[in-house]
Structure formats: structure tokens, C-alpha cells
Design a protein that fits this description.
Radius of gyration: 13 Å
Strand content: 35-45%
Number of strands: 5
Distance between the termini: 21 Å
Structural class: alpha+beta
Largest sheet: 5 strands, antiparallel
Length: 86
């Protein structure tokens, strides 16, 4: 994933349940849109930090139609959280 960032591109991927990270800060969100959180974080694991030393963004979205909670990871800090969740 870090190779993608070095090429000035961005990615959006579903998060694993066991992702070990430290939250740096959270952005305010309008929960009525389904976005539950928009956070900036760094990875904690030794190898994970080595493979991806930069900051990432974590967006949690609740899909009311299917009653599912979805979590996405991205390196895009410019796109709105709703766009990433779509």
C-alpha cells in the first residue's frame, strides 16, 4: 500500500478486525449520514509500521439498509468521508 502512496495515488480498502493502530485524532462527523467516525491513525505492529510508516485514515460507516457496520482504510485525506464510504 505504501508503494501506491509513493506513486501519488490513493486507495480505499476494507479494514481487518484485528488491525492494531493508535488513533492520532478524530474529525467531527454528522452521524445522520451514516458516517460514525473519521479518524487519522498510525499502525502499531513492528512489521506493519515498517511496511507503512505514514498516517492513514479510518472511516466507519453504518449501512442502515443492510444493518451492517463497514470500516474502510484509506490514504486519501482530501475526499469527504461520505465519498469514501460510497
Amino acid at each position: 500500500m505504501y508503494t501506491i502512496e509513493k506513486c501519488s495515488a490513493f486507495f480505499v480498502t476494507p479494514a481487518k478486525r484485528n488491525t492494531d493502530f493508535s488513533r492520532l485524532y478524530s474529525h467531527a462527523v454528522d452521524k445522520e449520514t451514516g458516517i460514525q467516525c473519521d479518524q487519522v491513525f498510525v499502525l502499531n505492529g513492528f512489521y506493519a509500521k515498517k511496511e507503512y510508516p505514514g498516517k492513514l485514515r479510518r472511516i466507519r460507516y453504518y449501512d442502515a439498509d443492510n444493518d451492517k457496520r463497514l470500516v474502510f482504510l484509506t490514504n486519501s485525506f482530501m475526499l469527504p468521508a461520505g465519498t469514501i464510504a460510497e
